[in-house]
Specification:
The chain has helices at residues 2-17, 22-30, 35-45, 79-109, 130-141, 144-148, 155-189, 194-221, 236-261, 272-304, 335-338, 340-365, 372-397, 402-425, 431-445; strands at 57-58, 61-62. The protein is mainly α and 446 residues long. The longest helix is centred in the middle third of the chain and has 35 residues, at 155-189. It is flat.
């Protein structure tokens, strides 16, 4: 009975790895002579670092912590040294994107984004002489923003907003170098698997495209205002696209970094009640994570319409819970993206829904058998959501000073980071791991 149980589980696992199918898997398991063959298998079917002790033996070989699981999905070749190097590089890139999002918010809040009126993919040196500064300033004085917002600005004031935008652009180009050069090095060393290489290639292409999206956004602010007496500003649609693209790149980098650093899915020795609890929370966490991202995206429309400087009261919007003129524009759909009252109302509703949803996730997690990291991340999400709502209210009541707006944008990405990490912690185990779990449980009973 025991031999048949082990044979079935191993055959299913080895068939997925062997190009020769189940027969080859059976031969690999039963072939050879004695313990050495079984020991090699034992070292393959139990994940690395998941067993705190070795309570079971397989054909006389302890199931130790120094093994690699058939269910483990390794993204890096080359052992622990390669794994640490690649994961640290990806964490650095993720942190760099986080910083760029915050710097982008600061650039927008200081109205620095339109200070550079041209764009080159490779970038260029900043003005280094008085004549070069005057030339750049002359270009800016011809822009709609200077005439409608900053008329009479001094050269020193222009230098400040120019350096802000220049830093944002060059940090993006520097990130491209920080990403591409180690990527090439790790490819040459053979550390990158085919799946990881495909992921990173897509992220590299998206990063290059993000620069084009940024210029596409800036270009909209260099056009004359649509209405007479209006202020020059970038299109809220393009601003939201730029922010959404940054969030997608960031989440892709962070998820990949987490997967490289922790390639094993949930440990095979986890009891079934833990796996069921994780599946239940996963069904809640994934849509709530999407809600967090949607709320952040709605904030881009608030920023793009300067809606944060209207209705600076809370909890009501002026004297009303629902402001007048919320559906004043035609067609009606335009109100959700271009109507100042509507976009702020939507952002308030989404923020409140996010707060209640994350509170519901916390309540649902109580009493469930979850891994320690998941429980801590849920608690952290609750605390971060409360802080983020408080930052939003403070920014609104104080007419969005730069420090408050930047903190609010950083808070949004911090909360999103926690939700991505939580979703990764609760990710679905591979089929091979589930089968190994059943095998370990059955071996324990026998």
């Amino acid at each position: 009975m025991l031999r048949r149980l082990i044979k079935n589980a191993v055959d299913r696992n080895l068939a997925r790895r062997s190009p020769l199918g189940t027969g080859a898997g059976y031969a690999a398991f039963h072939g050879g002579n004695g313990l050495s063959q079984h020991k090699g298998l034992a070292e393959r079917i139990v994940p690395h670092g998941v067993l705190p002790r070795a309570p079971y033996k397989l054909f006389g070989c302890p199931l130790s912590t120094g093994a690699v699981s058939l269910g483990t999905k390794e993204l890096v070749s080359g052992g622990n040294v390669a794994q640490k190097a690649v994961s640290r590089w990806l964490y650095v890139c993720s942190g760099w994107v986080f910083g760029m999002v915050v710097l982008g918010g600061m650039t927008r809040l200081t109205r620095s984004g339109l200070s550079m009126t041209d764009w080159k993919f490779t970038g260029s040196l900043p003005p280094l002489s008085a004549e070069e500064w005057e030339k750049e300033f002359d270009k800016y004085r011809q822009s709609p923003e200077y005439r409608t917002v900053n008329k009479g600005m001094s050269l020193d004031e222009f230098k400040f907003i120019y350096w802000m935008e220049y830093a944002h652009r060059m940090s993006g180009r520097a990130l491209g170098v920080v990403f591409a050069l180690p990527f090439g090095y790790f490819l040459v060393k053979g550390y990158i698997t085919r799946e990881l290489g495909a992921r990173l290639g897509v992220l590299l292409a998206m990063g290059a495209g993000q620069g084009l999206v940024g210029w596409w956004m800036v270009k909209s602010g260099l056009e004359e205002p649509a209405t007479e007496g209006g202020h020059a500003r970038v299109s809220p649609y393009r601003l939201a696209t730029h922010l959404a693209s940054a969030f997608v790149i960031y989440s892709g980098l962070l998820w990949t970094a987490l997967s490289v650093a922790s390639p094993s899915p949930p440990s095979p020795h986890l009891p079934q009640v833990v796996l069921q609890s994780m599946a239940r929370m996963r069904r809640l966490v994934l849509p709530v994570s999407g809600l967090v991202g949607l709320t952040a995206l709605s904030g881009a429309f608030v920023a793009g319409n300067d809606a944060g400087r209207a209705f600076n009261t809370f909890p009501k919007m002026g004297d009303d819970w629902i402001p007048e003129g919320i559906l004043a524009l035609q067609p009606t759909i335009k109100n959700f993206f271009e109507n100042t009252a509507t976009v702020q109302f939507n952002h308030r509703v989404l923020a409140t829904t996010t707060l209640l949803s994350i509170g519901a996730v916390w309540l649902a997690s109580r009493g469930l058998a979850l891994p320690g990291p998941a429980s801590k991340l849920i608690t952290g999400a609750v605390h971060m959501t409360l802080l983020q709502v408080s930052l939003g209210v403070y920014a609104l009541l104080s007419y969005v000073p730069v420090h408050a707006g930047v903190a609010h944008q950083a808070g949004a990405l911090t909360l999103f980071t926690i939700m991505v990490a939580l979703a990764h912690t609760l990710r679905r185990p591979f089929r091979g791991v589930t089968e190994t779990t059943r095998l370990m449980n059955r071996l324990g009973q026998i």
